[in-house]
Amino acid sequence: MYRTHTCGQLTLADLGKKITLCGWVQKSRDLGGMTFIDMRDRYGVTQLAFNADDDEALRARARELGREYVIQVKGTVIERSSKNLKISTGEIEIKVADLAVLNAAKLPPFLIEDETDGGDDLRMKYRYLDLRRNPVRNNLVLRHQMAQAVRSFLDQQGFLEVETPVLIKSTPEGARDFVVPSRMNEGQFYALPQSPQTFKQLLMVSGFDRYFQIVKCFRDEDLRADRQPEFTQIDCEMAFVEQEDILNLFEELISYLFKKVKNVEIGKLPRMTYADAMRLYGSDKPDTRFGMQFVELNPVLQGAGFPVFDNAELVVGIKAEGCASYTRKQIDALTDFVKRPQIGATGLVYLRYNEDGSLKSSVDKFFSQEQLQAWAKAMDANVGDLILVMAGDADKTRKQLNELRLELGNQLGLRDKNKFSALWVVDFPLLEWDDDTKRYHAMHHPFTSPKPEDIALLDTAPGEVRANAYDMVINGTEVGGGSIRIFEKDLQQLMFKHLGFTQEEAQTQFGFLMDAFTYGAPPHGGIAFGFDRLVSIFAGLDSIRDVIAFPKNNAGRDVMIDSPSSISQEQLDELKIEISAKA
Amino acid sequence: MYRTHTCGQLTLADLGKKITLCGWVQKSRDLGGMTFIDMRDRYGVTQLAFNADDDEALRARARELGREYVIQVKGTVIERSSKNLKISTGEIEIKVADLAVLNAAKLPPFLIEDETDGGDDLRMKYRYLDLRRNPVRNNLVLRHQMAQAVRSFLDQQGFLEVETPVLIKSTPEGARDFVVPSRMNEGQFYALPQSPQTFKQLLMVSGFDRYFQIVKCFRDEDLRADRQPEFTQIDCEMAFVEQEDILNLFEELISYLFKKVKNVEIGKLPRMTYADAMRLYGSDKPDTRFGMQFVELNPVLQGAGFPVFDNAELVVGIKAEGCASYTRKQIDALTDFVKRPQIGATGLVYLRYNEDGSLKSSVDKFFSQEQLQAWAKAMDANVGDLILVMAGDADKTRKQLNELRLELGNQLGLRDKNKFSALWVVDFPLLEWDDDTKRYHAMHHPFTSPKPEDIALLDTAPGEVRANAYDMVINGTEVGGGSIRIFEKDLQQLMFKHLGFTQEEAQTQFGFLMDAFTYGAPPHGGIAFGFDRLVSIFAGLDSIRDVIAFPKNNAGRDVMIDSPSSISQEQLDELKIEISAKA
């Protein structure tokens, strides 16, 4: 027993107790004949008091302690003269009788404080020190709480947590696999799972009825700030369900999580079709914390002789309430924003509803005041509002206006991290066209079922076939997605055909699944949540990296352990592989 | 909504209800004008009744259903005339009004019954069908329950579940790593973790105080029946603890699990030193479900002129109570057993304490009746007992006698799978000599701390240094093991030196850990349980394979998905690796 209590535990109720505490030296200060040390552990901070009058030698030793030294003290709980009511232990301190240094510490390369002076690279290299900081540790405590709450909810609902294999088989469909050479099967490779998709479907064929797993998944993709080569999913599947059953149950899960972990009532989740989401927000993951919905203006703005509008497939606007006072400079900045190569718009048209009731647009020479009035009316604009309009190819323009809407949301403080707005986006297209490969790809994955009434369109208008697929979106981020699966061999084969698989390819890669479908597969469907992303939203963070204990950088490296690394020639020989000469 | 209830739910309390059920056709039988179908799902079996008098067409369709068809029925709950009180739904049946085939099924390649006719290979290939069988599914339900109970207990005790990375760095120490070529870091490799050992220690340095994880680990070893290339650990670590704290807490965990999941009181776990375990059982994982402890007989049996005893380092016996009646043939069989190459003994000596009080041994010509009496007395033998004695090199002889003891335990029915005997084995040696490499290896791993009082022996008698290391043993199986770790850089460096690491090797492989020790590392220790093995013991099974949803065979293959497999040249090119020509 190194300690009797933790550093977050003692209060006035413990006055007079003889205790032993352990922890790290947070900071120390001298006041006259006294030395005070804040000692920290995971649970809190306790003040230690050393009085020169009582024991000068002990006090002298206390003064020699550096930041982050690991110490053990024995002493008595006494009342503090100068109380700190911000912390739970702030009314007491420890009158120290004995002090032992358990381990000395070099000065850390950055401050172990809530606000630190360490840059990203340094903090990644010394991740074990960064993890000592309260905000970082609190993210992982939140993650722990969410994982336990998810499991508790799903266990209550009769879901069985089943571990699926990590060493599986590479399939070319989808993202790039990480592969693992097999020593016992020369020249062959395992792959790490991008998701346990086929295994959870097999568990449904096995009659497991309700499955879940909080599970690591892997994708060898070029990394962005919010991507990691290994990430965690809450992976779920149910048999004998329709889409409605899944939406209801997992809406309940999310409500439970918000209530349990954040004490937030998220309410009933609205449902929006993919088509509506694109039409009203230009995104399949609309941030519904704020309105500013798109208004299509073709009938209002076309035919007035302004070629940009007249020649456009779509003319569409948003209303920034109360922004009529934006200066020319501010509007120019917004125009520059949408013209950036990442967004690629050619311009931005505004209409300002001035305080005096007059209307002023950047295309006044094409529009009469009456026409401007009709425009403002179509936008449901009031005095003081600013209307921003874009025009062009429908899909591209929607995506561009979505970026502008989000930027305005940021500027206007409408994207509050402490506010949560969740919804379901449903009726996703089954297929999407890929310009690179000149063929249709599965928008979710090849096991997603088409809506029965749309199957006939597979041959004539594949892009219009809707799927029984759904995403959960919170604050403009897709946190989960799933579908009702195909469970009949014939339909699955038809889908593979439409995705450009030869029969042989389909059989080699997914033969076991199609075979399984012939032995009594039940209707089934499921969902997977990106757990890292869900935690980051709960934590109010922008990046998933902050909710991962030991993340990798954008080159896929763990700079703390210096991985990946070279391996020995002996290892390569045993695996019967070589590094290419060109590498 | 495909169903209103499950197949394990309806009872007499539901009489008259209109219900909808879904499930698999277990079997069907005709009785006069009636057809009865047992419909199965995960939750149970419900009897469906089709009466030709009511609806001949419906009954005709029911008769066409094959085994394992997936069906949906609507009907009314009625009382059964012939009740089956063995199952929860045995007093009711469904008078079916409507029947829909959701999916037809080919005849499965083996019987989906508790007792099946399928061989191992066939059941592995069609694992998704084997998982439909109650005993197989029940193992995984048990696994789920145990995982939830473990998490609930540890969460209550303040442990945080933290996910550690799967893509880490290869280290030559220990077993062989699986490696993962990195596309973004040409010529470099990740390794899959054999355990999260260093990461959990870093979390202690980070002040996480109490960590756990139920986590997949990987070892590329040649497989035996009870080994899998991927396996699951309950991995735990605590700061500011001594060995005693860990033993007490995890003893509580095991007691909680036994009580919660099996309603078994496992009681206080005895502690036995490694030295005693070897002396009394010839094993560091003694099966303490039965006695039959070793008795060392050197003083009693040496000097009588029998060279095998006289020249032996150790003469040691066990007493098989009530086995004096063993025939010569039975004793010959035991002798053959210990002479098998896997055991390698040269012979077996017996002493029989006959019912008439006489003593008979296989070495009578060397021993007087008085000497035989002394022998029997040393063994605390009674009339009717059989004494079996082996002699030779102490270590080898103990191991051989351990095998004999276990075999006798089996033969005498003393190893009851429904009886549980758990203990701690403590004070393991720190190092063990390896004849192949001619050097000492860490018996647990290089981070295990030596007992402070034994550190001086590191230079003079390394094999005698005891570690603060402990195993939990249940029914002769090591289910968990751990240690108090080294937390000081100097001692860790000393250990690496004794393990034959150059300073450079130690720095390259574990520099990050030794650096971490210089920034304020607390004393810490932990334990890891083999979760697969623990579940298999709770389930009364011999192999861990039966508690894994999708296990691999002895060649490391998943024969269901046919993995590992070849990958495309394009994948190899992207990874800049080649398969060796000799492969």
Distance between the termini of chain A: 54 Å
Helix content of chain A: 25-40%
CATH H-tier superfamily of the largest domain in chain A: Bira Bifunctional Protein, Domain 2
Q: Overall pLDDT of chain A, averaged?
A: 95
Using the coordinates above, name the CATH class of the largest domain in chain A: Alpha Beta
Strand order of the largest sheet of chain A: 6-9-10-22-21-20-17-11
Reported by name, the CATH topology of the largest domain in chain A is: BirA Bifunctional Protein, domain 2
User: What CATH architecture of the largest domain in chain A do you see?
Assistant: 2-Layer Sandwich
* Annotation, overall tally of beta strands of chain A: 23
Low-confidence stretches of chain A: none
Query: How large is the share of residues in beta strands of chain A?
Result: 15-25%
Of all chain pairs, the largest interface belongs to: A-B, 124 and 125 residues
Could you say which overall geometry of chain A the principal axes of the C-alpha atoms support? globular
Organism (chains A, B): Olivibacter oleidegradans
EC number (chains A, B): 6.1.1.12
Catalytic activity (chains A, B): tRNA(Asp) + L-aspartate + ATP = L-aspartyl-tRNA(Asp) + AMP + diphosphate
Family (chains A, B): Belongs to the class-II aminoacyl-tRNA synthetase family. Type 1 subfamily.
